[in-house]
Amino acid sequence: MYQDKKIIVVMPAYNAEETLRKTYNEVMAQGIVDLVIIVDDASRDQTASLARTLPKTHVHVHERNRGYGANQKSCYRIALEEGADIIIMVHPDYQYTPMLIPAMASMIGNGLYHCVLGSRILGGQALQGGMPLWKYIANRFLTLAENILLGAKLSEYHSGYRAFSKELLAAIDLHRNSDDFVFDNQMLAQILWQGYTIAEVSCPTKYFAEASSINLSRSITYGLGCLKTAATFRLASLGLLQSDLFSEKKEL
Hints:
This protein is α/β, with parallel strands linked by helices.
């Protein structure tokens, strides 16, 4: 709990057996997490079996692989059903340190923001932390284009370390988003569309063999999807295009 608010960490998992326990232990070591929701997207390893041995968890398993976006949809739906006030997504591959959970939770729990991202770019150490040069360049290019089209000033849009208030998750229509990786980007665009401010905290970058990553082909598809999302946002904001992603704006 934080300020009498229930904190739930969600972990969208896929073949995370080797790093799940380490990530979970560090999450719970922060001392404020009430429940961890682990959604296993039909892993080929023992992720689900291991998850069921961990205390204070809710484990949900997809019968077939549905994709990263679909995994998050399940995570957030279950978190709201469990009565979460603050929802924090932590990847179980240990690429993002759970030590930032208290800071991110406090920014939401104190009413300052409804969304907080852990940015790998803010601290200026992304390359030193092992981010491949081609990914860094792509990140910088996409972020510049998206800031222009979305009218925002984020340091990056591609971090998987995110915290949300329950009010924000209730205000956006996640089911309209892709079931693939571009879900992340569509979600941030929807948050901006609804008029929320997105805050950022500096997050150390960690790349290693067990950390999840997508290949070049999938990265190109993702990048094109990000640009399409941002362009759709801009056209919809100008009244030149109708979009299911960016329709009515709800009261904050």
